[in-house]
Amino acid sequence: MDLHRSSERGAARLKLLIFLLVVGAIGYVGYLYVPVAYQAYLFKDWMQHIVDVASASGYQPVWVNDQLKKGLPEYDIPPDAVITPATRDNRIEVRVQYTRTIEFPGYTYQYEFDHTARSSAFLTFK
């Protein structure tokens, strides 16, 4: 009976080690990527809020640009982000573009952010 099971020794340890390495690698990638993606999500929400406030209050697109530039450090957005405010169809919209570098071991990922927020039509100031 021992002869048949002698080749199985250590197999569970090796599988556990491989499993822990894979879970650790996925956890580490998530640790680096998730904060960047979450900050981008919060920034999209804030962009929408700013254009809605500008539209409801009758502010010009320049005000939107100023407000977004003030908030860049809070959302960990690079200062070289391209902010393009405009007025189209009696609505205010703003487009923000930037790239963030996420460095993984042996690989560098470029997180591309390109989002356009448009004010709601019912909030338009006339």
Overview of the molecule:
- It is a single chain.
- With 126 residues, the chain is an alpha+beta fold.
- The chain has one domain.
- The protein contains 3 helices and 3 strands, in the order H-H-H-E-E-E.
- The longest helix is centred in the N-terminal third of the chain and has 47 residues, at 11-57.
- The model has no long low-confidence stretch (mean pLDDT 88).
Set out the fold topology:
Elements: H1 2-5, H2 11-57, H3 61-71, E1 82-88, E2 91-104, E3 107-118
Antiparallel strand pairs: 1-2, 2-3
List keywords for this structure.
26% strand; 3-stranded antiparallel β-sheet; 3 strands; single chain; alpha+beta; 126 residues; elongated
Strand percent estimate: 25-35%
What is the count of β-strands? 3
Taking all Cα atoms into account, the compactness measure Rg is 24 Å
| Parts with pLDDT < 50 across at least 5 consecutive residues | none
Task: Tell me the number of structural domains.
Answer: 1
Helix content: 40-55%
Structural class: alpha+beta
Largest sheet: 3 strands, antiparallel
What value does the average pLDDT take? 88
Please provide a brief summary of the model:
With 126 residues, the protein is of the alpha+beta class. Helices cover 49% and strands 26% of the residues. α2 packs antiparallel against α3.
